[in-house]
UniProtKB/TrEMBL annotation:
Taxonomy, superkingdom: Eukaryota
Assembly: The holoenzyme is a dodecamer composed of 6 PCCA/alpha subunits and 6 PCCB/beta subunits. Interacts (via the biotin carboxylation domain) with SIRT4. Interacts with SIRT3 and SIRT5.
Entry's Gene Ontology molecular function annotations: ATP binding; metal ion binding; propionyl-CoA carboxylase activity
Pathway given in the UniProt record: Metabolic intermediate metabolism; propanoyl-CoA degradation; succinyl-CoA from propanoyl-CoA: step 1/3
Signal peptide: 1-18
Main subcellular localisation: mitochondrion
Gene Ontology cellular component terms for the protein in this record: mitochondrial matrix
Compartments it resides in: Mitochondrion matrix
Protein name: Propionyl-CoA carboxylase alpha chain, mitochondrial
Source organism: Denticeps clupeoides
InterPro entries noted in UniProt: ATP-grasp, ATP_grasp_subdomain_1, BC-like_N, Biotin_BS, Biotin_carboxylase_complex, Biotin_carboxylation_dom, Biotin_COase_C, Biotin_lipoyl
The entry's keywords: Acetylation, ATP-binding, Biotin, Ligase, Lipid degradation, Lipid metabolism, Magnesium, Manganese, Metal-binding, Mitochondrion, Nucleotide-binding, Phosphoprotein, Signal, Transit peptide
Length: 674
């Protein structure tokens, strides 16, 4: 007999749950009703605090989001347009109408979309609606990377050498890059979130980077202006959370380490950083507050820095909104940042002094995405969540999500499934809890990045704190290949698979109390099994005593016991005295795979297929053209990120199967070469 299994292991621990130290005073009058101009997890996150404060909420949604979790959670909901963001979540006219229709007194923009749009803030102010964020001056000053750098210099904040102006075209970009010296960073003046950002190491990459960055900037922010500055090689990305009121008070709420990134977008964050000493932390915090005060900032905001190996730090940008990773700051300070933003927007002064801001324990956040981590550390995946179970049964685990079982992950929006946060008294405790939480997180129906997240948090370099923004390409130079089994791990997996198979067979015999085999077979206590793993076939001997199985593999004996509850997607077992948690996928396809013809590998040098679902933005060739190896053939946009598809060899174009504006799926044929 042989069966194919997919397992994830975890060690289980029981810990206490962290709580906010924030007090929600219902006698403190803020707003009666707040509209959240966003979707997904951040909309749900804001609504949770509003409910604690006794504030009614209004959701806005596109037509495809009509049954989304944030819509169900809100007290009222208004459709603001069709699926494309430009026609719904960025549609200011429709959102303003929703505000008038519902009588909302204030708007929380979340992050992304209109959160840093000064025109939106102006329109709200004109109608007497409070914007839960900074005023338009601060948004404009800090949202423009060129202006913000000049203000930072004037406020005596450390800045990166670069060109203090807007780059007009690709030729000027090349000239400036040569004056600064390679490598350089080309980035959108009005951007953020890794969009509109490219690193260039030579003139050719500068020209290409200018084109892509300007296109992405225009698509994401409606502003294609770019700037160029020196790229600091091998830095850490560390940011300071600030909080300021309308009375001249400002605080820094410690730092967040955000160096684990792919394509300039954060993947794993933690607070505090293993790298900063108290003196550097204080210097960064004081400069962040100095910058906030320079623009009369009032709300929650984040000042991002690049930090080199000698702890020199340089201003990168200021995000005038709530950050994706704000929960880890909440964990170590006990503050509810959304509550603080709402209080500040209403005009209340800060409740704390700098001396009262603690660092209590350690928090880690993993961004769980619907992405294929085996492709460039994460290319978007779409589909429906056929099974979804968050690890909220574990203590000190927080999951900020805006989806549920049955939800669709579409090409229109960011592929984030959730933010998984764990907290501990120490970093080691928080890491162990993250390992536990990731292994207990059940997601079926879409490809996700949990395998990559788990490998990151158990990697020796990450555990030791030896990280930089180059961590992923340095640790996985050939790309992420998944967990590599050790000899011991292979035997443990084989033993568990064999035990599970026998338990499943015995359960089947007792289906509905119907004994489908003879009593002699029912009393069987030993089995000889053939188990397939990684295309290898292994012979195992299995014996049973109650709920415990003894498995013999190559002379070694392993004991596996469990309650064998096969109805649950999670199964806890004890393997040679060590507790593990399994996620088990037993599929009919595995049993039938022997009957399937072997798939002949495709000549990928002659055929270009889309590596992800998305929209064709541009096609650079036509049938009959000759292309060089590495030459761009077309551009695919997925989740607002543009990806250049290039030729694998020098050849003539035989046929083109796509055109601009078309939607393509993963694996769709784009271009054939001769």
């Amino acid at each position: 007999m042989s069966e194919m299994f997919c397992f994830v292991f975890v060690c289980c621990i029981i810990v206490s749950r962290a709580q906010y130290s924030t007090v929600y005073d219902h006698n403190e009058k803020t707003f009666d009703k707040i509209l959240i101009a966003n979707r997904g997890e951040i909309a749900c996150r804001v609504m949770k605090t509003c409910k604690k404060m006794g504030i009614k909420t209004v959701a806005v949604h596109s037509d495809v989001d009509a049954n989304a979790v944030h819509v169900k959670m809100a007290d009222e909901a208004v459709c603001v347009g069709p699926a494309p963001t430009s026609k719904s979540y960025l549609n200011m006219d429709a959102i303003m109408n929703a505000i008038r229709q519902t009588g909302a007194q204030a708007v929380h923009p979340g992050y992304g979309f209109l959160s840093e749009n000064k025109e939106f803030a102006k329109r709200l102010a004109a109608e007497g609606v409070s914007f839960i964020g900074p005023d338009t001056h601060a948004i404009q000053a800090m949202g423009d990377k060129i202006e913000s750098k000049l203000i930072a210099k004037a406020a005596k904040v450390n800045t990166i050498p670069g060109f203090d102006g807007v780059v007009k075209d690709a030729d000027e970009a090349v000239r400036i890059a040569n004056e600064i010296g390679y490598p350089v960073m080309i980035k959108a003046s009005a951007g953020g979130g890794g969009k509109g950002m490219r690193i260039a190491w030579n003139d050719e990459e500068t020209r290409e980077g200018f084109r892509f960055s300007s296109q992405e900037a225009a698509s994401s922010f409606g502003d294609d202006r770019l700037l160029i500055e020196k790229f600091i090689d091998n830095p850490r990305h560390i940011e300071i959370q600030v909080l300021a009121d309308k009375h001249g008070n400002a605080l820094w709420l410690n730092e967040r380490e955000c160096s684990i990134q792919r394509r300039n977008q954060k993947v794993v964050e933690e607070a505090p950083s293993t790298f900063l000493d108290p003196e550097t932390r204080r210097a960064m915090g004081e400069q962040a507050v100095s910058l906030a005060k320079a623009v009369n900032y009032s709300s929650a905001g984040t000042v991002e820095f690049l930090v080199d190996s000698r702890k020199n730090f340089y201003f990168l940008e200021m995000n005038t909104r709530l950050q994706v990773e704000h929960p880890i700051t909440e964990c170590i300070t006990g503050l509810d940042l959304v509550q603080q933003m709402i209080r500040i927007a209403k005009g209340f002064p800060l409740q704390h002094t700098q001396a009262e801001i603690p660092i209590n324990g350690w928090a880690i956040e993993s961004r769980v995405y619907a992405e294929d981590p085996y492709k460039s550390f994460g290319l978007p995946s779409i589909g429906r969540l056929s099974q979804y179970q968050e690890p909220l049964n574990l203590h000190n685990v927080r999951v900020d999500s805006g989806i549920e079982e049955g939800s669709d992950i579409s090409i229109y929006y960011d592929p984030m499934i959730s933010k998984l946060v764990t907290y501990g008294a120490t970093r080691a405790e928080a890491l162990k809890k993250m390992e536990d939480a990731l292994d207990n997180y059940v997601i079926r129906g879409v490809t996700h990045n949990i395998p990559l997240l788990r490998e990151i948090i158990v990697h020796p370099r990450f555990i030791s704190g030896d990280i930089s923004t180059k961590f992923l390409p340095e640790v996985y130079p050939e790309g992420f290949k998944g967990h590599q089994l050790t000899a011991t791990g292979r035997k443990e997996l084989l033993a568990t698979a064999a035990s599970l198979f026998v338990a499943a067979q015995l359960r089947a015999q007792k289906f509905l109390g119907d004994l489908r085999v003879s009593n002699t077979q029912q009393e069987r206590r030993s089995w000889e099994l053939c188990v397939e793993l990684e295309k290898g076939v292994h012979m195992l001997g299995v014996s049973r005593s109650g709920a415990t199985y003894t498995v013999e593999i190559d002379g070694d004996k392993l004991e596996v016991s469990s309650d064998w509850n096969l109805a649950s997607p999670l199964l806890t077992v004890t393997l040679n005295g060590i507790h593990r948690t399994l996620q088990v996928h037993i599929k009919l396809a595995a049993a039938l795979s022997v009957h399937m013809p072997e798939k002949v590998p495709e000549d990928t040098s002659s055929i270009l297929r889309s590596p992800m679902p998305g929209t064709v933005v541009a096609v650079s060739v036509k049938a009959g053209d000759t292309v060089a190896e590495g030459q761009e053939i077309c551009v695919i946009e997925a989740m607002k990120m543009q990806n250049s598809m290039t030729a694998a060899k020098t050849a003539k174009v035989r046929s083109v199967h796509c055109k601009p504006g078309e939607t393509v799926g993963e694996g769709d044929l784009l271009v054939e070469l001769e």
